[in-house]
Amino acid sequence: GNLILDEVDIILHPLKSELNWPLGKRMPLDFTRSSIGNGIRWGLPFHLLDCIFYATDDQITVNLHDSREALSLLLKIKSTIIEGIEQRLLQKTPHIVLLSRVFYRTKLKPLIAQWLLIYMRLKRLKNFSDENVMECLLKGVENVSVEIKNIISTSLQDEHVKLLNLGHQWLNHFLPFVITKINRVSFGLLASEERR
C-alpha cells in the first residue's frame, strides 16, 4: 500500500503529534460487532445527528418513517431548534451550530434523550423500563439509584450496559461538543455545477 503524509515536520515532531503504528493481530474496534447488532459504534451517533439534521432538511437516514412517535418527536426537536435560532442560542449558517450549552442542557438534551431511547428500543433493551433508560442516559450508569443498579447487574447483558454508557457519553459530552464546531471548509470541494 501507499501512504501519503503531508506536513511531515508536524506529524513526525515528537512533541506535536502522536503517530501510532498498530502492530499485532488485527482486531475489530469495540462495538463494531456485537450480539445486539453490528456497527453500533457508528449507528448511535448517526441516529443522534439525524434529529439535528432533520431540523434543516426534513429527512432522516434511519428507518423510522412509519413511526408516529418518532416523527412527533422529530417535530418537537425541530421546533425547539427553530426557537433556539430565533433566540440566537443556535446558529443556522453554515449549518446548525450550538451557541449556548445551557440551551442544550435545558431544552434540547431531554428531547434528544427521548430520540435516543427509540434507538435503545431498537437494540432490544429488555427488562428495563423507559424511565430507567432515560435516567441512565441523563445521569450515567454509575450515578443512578441503587435499585436501578441492581436491575442493571441482574437483568442486562454487558452489551446493553455498554450501549447505555455509550449513549450517555454521546448525549452529555460528544454531541454538544460536535454541534458547537463550525465546518468552514470550502476549498478543494466541488461546486454542484462542477460535479455534473
Characterization of this structure:
The chain has a two-stranded antiparallel ribbon with strand order 1-2. It has helices at 8-11, 40-57, 68-86, 101-122, 130-139, 146-155, 158-178; strands at residues 90-91, 97-98. The mean pLDDT is 85. Helix 4 crosses helix 5 (130-139). It is mainly α.
Helices and strands, with pairings:
Elements: H1 8-11, H2 40-57, H3 68-86, E1 90-91, E2 97-98, H4 101-122, H5 130-139, H6 146-155, H7 158-178
Antiparallel strand pairs: 1-2
Helix pairs in contact: 2-3, 2-4, 2-7, 3-4, 4-5, 4-7, 5-7
Strand count = 2
Structural class category: mainly alpha
Beta-strand content estimate: under 5%
Element-by-element helix/strand order: HHHEEHHHH
Proportion in helices: 40-55%
How far apart the termini lie comes to: 31 Å
Which ranges are low-confidence, i.e. pLDDT below 50, for 5 or more consecutive residues? none
What is the global morphology?
globular
**Individual helix count:** 7
Can you summarize this structure?
Strands 1-2 form a two-stranded antiparallel ribbon.
List the main descriptive attributes of the protein structure presented here:
single chain; 196 residues; mainly alpha; two-stranded antiparallel ribbon; 7 helices; 2 strands
